[in-house]
Amino acid sequence: MVPLRMLGLTRTIIFERAGAVLRSRSVVEDGFMPMRGVGAVREQNIPVGAGPDLTIRLDDDRPGDASVLRGALDHPVAVCWTGVEVPWGWTEHLDFWLATLEGFCRLLVSRAAVDAGRLMAPKGPWGSMGVVEGGTLAYLTTRPSPDGDAEMPSYEIGACGYGPQGADLAARLAGRVRDWDRDGGQGVQLWIEAYPADAVRPEASGVLLAVDKRDSRVLVRVAEQAPAAV
Predict the structure, then answer these.
(1) Tens-place pLDDT, residues 44-98
(2) Which of 10, 78, 122, 191 has a CA positioned 20 to 30 A from the CA of residue 205?
(3) Contact 221, 191 (CB under 8 A)
(4) Are the C-beta atoms of 181 and 199 separated by less than 8 Å?
């Protein structure tokens, strides 16, 4: 069992060895403290604007520059609702689909900014996955679905964008949510493989995401869905 962090996404994985390759038997979403000391992954927390309303979190040494986003929050919000509704707002493994977008990151939004109406609420209390491009940012949000009830509340997933291209970026983020839903949604299963960094490049067919780490190359594949029973 291995805790693995990929572009800020954390999973606990049971691997089995096949020669020099590790292939997953189980992939569970989990959170844990980032590695410290030798092998540590540098994490950046970049505040946007003058106050603590919004922070961009990046790791794996991806570049970040708050100066280009200085005026993003001065633009009116652009919201794109997806039509994808899920119980409790739970979207298992959706973050891997979002991570295929250039500028993928986690955005932390302060409760005070939400309560004051300055920013829309993020999808989760800890923040939300999103994207940054030039002077524009977008992240996931939710709203209650009329199909839910008190015992099983349901939420529609949406994306909100701030900046000169807020509508476009929110639409792209929403598009990946729809892709996730099309590819299996809540029932999606992933296979994760880890190869030595110096190994021959593995077959990329069916790969959702490839992440190059210091000593390995990690591939995330979508498992084939079993046909529905008739």
Answers:
(1) 888 887 778 999 998 766 666 778 888 899 999 999 999 999 998 889 999 999 9
(2) 10
(3) yes
(4) no
Domain of residue 28 covers 1-41
Burial class (CB in 10 A: 0-12, 13-18, 19+), 127: buried
Question: What pLDDT shows up at residue 63?
Answer: 65
Residue 220 in this model has a pLDDT that exceeds 50: yes
216 falls within a domain:
no
Cβ-proximal residues to 192 (8 Å cutoff; 6+ apart), any chain: 4, 11, 13, 23, 24, 27, 218, 219, 220, 221
Domain count, the chain: 2
> Cα–Cα distances in Å, from 79 out to 5, 24, 46, 162, 163?
30, 37, 23, 9, 12
Cα(95)–Cα(172) distance, integer angstroms: 14
Helix (H) or strand (E) holding 174: helix 166-182
Answer yes or no: is 205 within a domain: no
Q: Does 28 lie in the same domain as 130?
A: no
pLDDT digits (tens, 9 = 90+) for 194-208: 999 888 776 667 799
